[in-house]
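One-letter codes give the sequence; each number marks local geometry. A record appears below:


***
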Amino acid sequence: MVHVVHPLAVSAQTCEVQVVSRAELLRAMRLHGNYNLVATPNLARFQTDVFLQLARWARSRSPQGDPLFVGPEDWFQGYAEVTGVTRETAPEAIRRALEVGQLTQLDYRTDHVIEEPGDGPKPLNAMNVRIWWEPIPSGPSKYSYRDTISTPNLSVTNQQMITFRLLEFDDKIVYDQVRGLSGRPTTGLLGLLFRLIGEGEVVESRMTISTDGLQIVVARSKKVFTVPVTATVHPDGRGEKGVPDGRADLEAIEGRLRRPVPVRYVPYAC
């Protein structure tokens, strides 16, 4: 069940929201695919699976309903129950998000995200995503974490406000107009996995899953490169640049991910 609350009940909101119950959040989390949920390179995949499922349920109830809201404690407790981790053993990315009180808002009303598409395919789902925490005196304006378990090792920086457009098509997921996320080498929360030269700000990432469970990612960073770079993430969290040799099917996926996505975005509201 999702409950509607007044914006004053959730600080920093500019419109009314629906607070996702822990029970519904946990139900969405349990629908994840067959991949390692505690490997940092897979956190983007897990997060996206959950966001899209929550949006599907909400849209079926009310296509023009208020944006969804997920609190930090509910997200952590749901993740902990699904994975079996504790506050001490959870990935650093999950712990840091809980420590700063990272909040999530999902506006799943398609007409609040994109204009009516022209000749291109229409997304199955379109969301404005906002991930942030409240400013407090002497509190951090950003946080970074390192993951020494993943291959390659990761260093990721989250600004206090992260926003992006999340589009689901038949053949891919698109994260566009990304703001507030950077890394060195990084997977981030958006599935970017390759070695960056210095600190690069992620601006766009696209991904899809192959028939044998590989996550193929094509991403672009504003400061480091303008030509998209491809990476492959295995279900256990191992990553490699490009796609494995001899895989014509993955090369075809990469080609589809690199095609233009002809959408026009509506200015942010709420």
